[in-house]
Every structure is written in C-alpha cells, then in structure tokens.
Amino acid sequence: MSSEGKKLFNIIILGVSFMFIFTAFQTCGNIAQTVITNLNSTDFHGSGYTSMSIIYGVFSASNLISPSVVAIVGPQFSMVVSGIFYSLYIAVFIQPATWAFYTASVFIGIAAAVLWTAQGNCLTVNSDENTIGRNSGVFWALLQFSLFFGNLYIYFAWQGKTHISESDRRTVFIALTVISLVGTVLFFLIRKQEDTKAPGDEDSTNEILGESSSARNKMMKAVAAFKKSITLSFTKEMMLLSVTTAYTGLELTFFSGVYGTCIGAVNRFGSEEKSLIGLSGIFIGVGEILGGGIFGLLSKNSRFGRNPIVMLGILVHFIAFYLIFFNMPNDAPIAPMEGTNQVAYMSPSKEVAMLCSFLLGLGDSCFNTQLLSILGFLYSEDSAPAFAIFKFVQSICAAVAYFYSNYFLLQWQLLIMVIVGFFGTITFFTVEWEAAAALAARGSDYSSI
Asked: What is the mean pLDDT of residues 223-241?
C-alpha cells in the first residue's frame, strides 16, 4: 500500500473507531437525563446535566496537560486507554450509583481531553495541505454515523413507552458498553507513519538513546508541548477562533443533551415522546453526515474557501433556533418527571421538531468540519497543542452550558447561542481571510484548502 493509501486507511480507521465509541457515548448522553429522571424515585439522585457539566469542566482543564500525555505515550495508546474510560462511564448506567456516576464523570473528562488531542494529532499527521479538508470531512462523516445507529435503536426499542424500566435500561447500556469497547479495540489497527512526530517533538535527533536519556527526552517533549499550548493560546488567530469554538461548545450541549430532553418532556407528543428522543438523534446524525460529506469530501471543488460553509452553518442554526422557540414550551429543558403540558407559540409539532434536529446537525457539521480544516492548515507543525486549545475552549463552554441548563428556560438558552454564534462567525471570517492572504502570498491555490 502506498504512503498516501496508508494515511487514508488510518483516517478511515480513526473515523470508524470514533463512530463506535460515540455511538455509545452520544446515545448515552442523549438519553441520560431521561433515564435518570426515571431513577430519581430510587436511591439514585444524580443529574445528567450536572454529570455533563463535570465532564466538560474536567475535560477543559485536562486539555492543559493532554498534549504532554500524548507526547509521552503516543497518540495510539492514548486513544486506547481513553476509550476504556469511555466504556467504564457507560457501564455505570447498568447498575447506577450516585458516587460511581460522578466519579466516572471526572475520569471520562480527563480521558476525553487525551482522546481528542490524540485524534487531532493523528488527523494532522496523516494529512497535508491538500488533503486536510478531505480527511476532516471523511473523519467527521464517519464519526457522525454514531448519532444514527444508537438513536435508531432507541427509537424502536422505546416506542410507545412512557416509563423506562430497569430491564430496558440495562439492555441498552450493556449493548452500548460493548459497542464502545469494539471502537477502542479498533484503534490498534492504525498504522504508524514513519515520519510521525509526537507532539512537542523536534526535528529528527539521534534514534538510539539509553533508557535514562529516552525518559529525559520524553519529559522534555511533555514540557515543550505544554509550553507550546500556552504560547499558541495567546496568538491572534487562536484567540479569534476561540470565539467560534465557544459557540460550538454551547450548541453541542444544546443538540446533544438539552434538545432531546425538551422533546421527551412534551406531553402533547403523547406516547411517542420518549421514542422521539431517538428519532431526533437520527435526524441530527443525518444532518451531520450530510454536512461532513458535502463540505468535507467535496472541499477541493470549493473556489471560495471555508467562509461560505460557516455562513451557511450559522443561517441554518438561526432558522432552527427560531422554529424551536415557536415549537417547544419554554419550561421543557427543566420540566419534572411528569413532563410539561405548556404550549409555546404553536401547538407542538413532531415534524417541526425533527426538522429542527436535522438543521442542528447540519449547522454543527458546517462549523466543525471547517474548524478542523483550518486548525490542521494553520498549525500543521503544532497539531496536538492546537487541537488541545480547541477542545479546551469548546469543553469549558459546554460545561457552562450544561450547568445553566439546569436552571435557564429555553428562550434564554437560545438567546445566548444566537449572540455567541453571531460573533463567532465574524471572528472565523477574519482568520480565514488572513489564511487566504497568506496562502496567496506563497503562490498556492486557495481552492486546495
């Protein structure tokens, strides 16, 4: 197999592995609050929103050290160990205990930081200036199949159910744990590139070193990766992109946790309200996959760069927010176990709710494929620190959003996303224009990015 073929193979395996792990994890996140609401009459007193807030808070802080971890143990082993922790978190739901639930939330936050930093490093190492757009799209499309498969099962398994029994819960979470472990094992199929540099590594030095020297070099790599993360975080480009990244964190929380809870709380949807959570996840996944396919795989045919795709993303999201505001009761995110009988500005429509799910997924893919692409392009030599900063900002905003989701009515959550999304789009445009100017100065074809 040629070098280019090996790289594409690695990207596909990377995407498939993430697809399995996040089929389990995102389905878990989508149904967690609904499942927990049915558990709170027992000795279990956890909150899905609080758990996700802990996860993303720890995730954010852990991104400060994740480049160093990846530098020491390598991206492949980092992803394997992280995948095991994802599986353990999902397994907690088989027999929930409040202490285990929140403890697992802390550990998966650390694992998530290492996993995504290693993913960014693996994506960049297996790409170049001409393939980063394509590879970002391939990875994103494969990853987002995770929303489709898990939620398809939830839709059929929970159809007609108004209460989730202990047997229903155990069956779902045993299956999700196994799926997550399959994705973890697949990381072993990724082939190491001969020219791969660990994050924080310098250009080639002596290969044959004593054990003490090797340990010292690894520590130096770790320190260098940490210093690089701090340095990059204060660059103009990274600070501007951080506003865009902050928006992706807020809307990630909304579509992956809050919106499904809203749908499941609307009593006017009748006996379908719980199964509609799964159907909503399917439509989000369809939007994500379509966006990844069109805006990633076909990126080489774009003569206008990334800005039009990001503009489409924000317009699609604004339309979705507007329709959700009219369709969903204001108290839906914080409704009790009994649900809500309130009505918004129109009688709740299942069709409009599913359309909004599709639009949320499509808009999210617009932002994330282009952020992955521009980070890989701008920071090809410092991929691990750059992706760590990206996930740091995204996760801390997701943590904040999960925290206020316990208290804020729907209208205020939508307003926050509209404001941050507007400014995030403008800052992305600014960085993209500067990247295009730099590329033109080097005499490269702008359409190749």
From this structure: 80
Residue whose tokens read 């200036």: 129
284, 291 in Cβ contact below 8 A? no
215/212 Cα distance (integer angstroms)? 5
* pLDDT at residue 85, rounded to an integer: 95
d(CA 24, CA 17) in angstroms, rounded, equals 11
Per-residue pLDDT of 290-304, as tens digits, reads 887 777 655 554 555
Span 1-189: which CATH code? 1.20.1250.20
Largest CA distance in the chain: 72
Domain boundaries, the chain: 1-189, 226-443
CB 90 within 8 A of CB 25: yes
Token pair, residue 319, equals 């339309």
Cα–Cα distance measured from residue 154 to residue 152, given in angstroms and rounded to the nearest whole number: 5
Grouping H, G, I as helix, E, B as strand and the rest as coil, residue 340 is strand
Instruction: Calculate the alpha carbon distances from 154 to 40, 175, 182, 189, 405 in Å.
Output: 21, 11, 19, 30, 23
Query: Which residue, chain included where needed, has tokens 């617009």?
Result: 366
Cα–Cα distance between 141 and 138 in angstroms, integer? 5
For residue 318, give both structure tokens.
Answer: 């604004």
Burial class (CB in 10 A: 0-12, 13-18, 19+), 399: buried
Report helix, strand or coil for 346.
coil
Q: Does domain 226-443 correspond to CATH entry 1.20.1250.20?
A: yes
Local structure of residue 234 (DSSP, 8 states): T
Q: Which neighbouring-strand residues pair with 266?
A: 340
By the 8 A CB rule, do 327 and 259 touch? no
Cβ pair 287, 274 in contact under 8 A: no
Token code pair at residue 244 = 């865009």
Instruction: State if pTM tops 0.90.
Output: no
* Best CA proximity match to 261, nearest among 243, 246, 280, 244: 280
- Sign of torsion over alpha carbons 125, 129, 131, 133: positive
